[in-house]
Amino acid sequence: GNIVSALSVIACLGTMCGWLILQSEGPRAAANAGIFPKFFGETNKNDVPMKSLVFTGILMTIVFFMTMSPNASEQFKILILMSVYACLVPYIYAVIALPITMIAKGKSKSKSFYGYLFLTAVALIYCLFAMLGSGTDTLFWGCLLLQITIPLYSYVAKRKKERGEVILLNQ
């Protein structure tokens, strides 16, 4: 009993650290790359992107209230499935970007390219099965999330192109 409790506390602390990194550093990196608005990249005197943390906290609170259920376990189930789905979206983008980047860099003829292509296919299949297994409600909201992010990225890419910046690769 005590060992399991201690391990649970350690797991919660590790999860909290991971959450802070995911909620602050992801948007910060995207802002520094010009994909997200610049305020996500602004930091305080301790180099912490507080505006990003506050913004994502507000969004999470809105989602929390949108998924309110008389049964707390059902609400947490919905939130967990939605967060897993939302976390898989950047992984899918990254998985798809790897072979595209390798081709753009002229590495498509290398032996390692086919190994990475195989790993890309495995990772993509895994992510898609995880998304499909999350249930119809989560799949609906997740597809809505994807439909929002794709035009948003297109808008950002168009702005970068108008400024003469590289869209796909940092060359």
From TrEMBL:
Membrane topology note: Multi-pass membrane protein
Domain of life (superkingdom): Bacteria
Record key words, sorted: Cell membrane, Membrane, Transmembrane, Transmembrane helix
Transmembrane segment boundaries: 6-22, 53-72, 78-101, 113-132, 138-156
Listed GO CC annotations: plasma membrane
One Pfam family per UniProt: AA_permease_2
Alphabetical list of InterPro entries matching this protein: AA/rel_permease1, APC_superfamily
GO MF annotation list: transmembrane transporter activity
Keyword match Transmembrane helix: yes
Xref: Gene3D superfamilies: Amino acid/polyamine transporter I
Subcellular location(s) per record: Cell membrane
Signal sequence residues: none
Its biological purpose: Major component of the acid-resistance (AR) system allowing enteric pathogens to survive the acidic environment in the stomach. Exchanges extracellular arginine for its intracellular decarboxylation product agmatine (Agm) thereby expelling intracellular protons. Probably undergoes several conformational states in order to translocate the substrate across the membrane; keeps the substrate accessible to only 1 side of the membrane at a time by opening and closing 3 membrane-internal gates.
Family: Belongs to the amino acid-polyamine-organocation (APC) superfamily. Basic amino acid/polyamine antiporter (APA) (TC 2.A.3.2) family.
Name of the protein described by the UniProt record: Arginine/agmatine antiporter
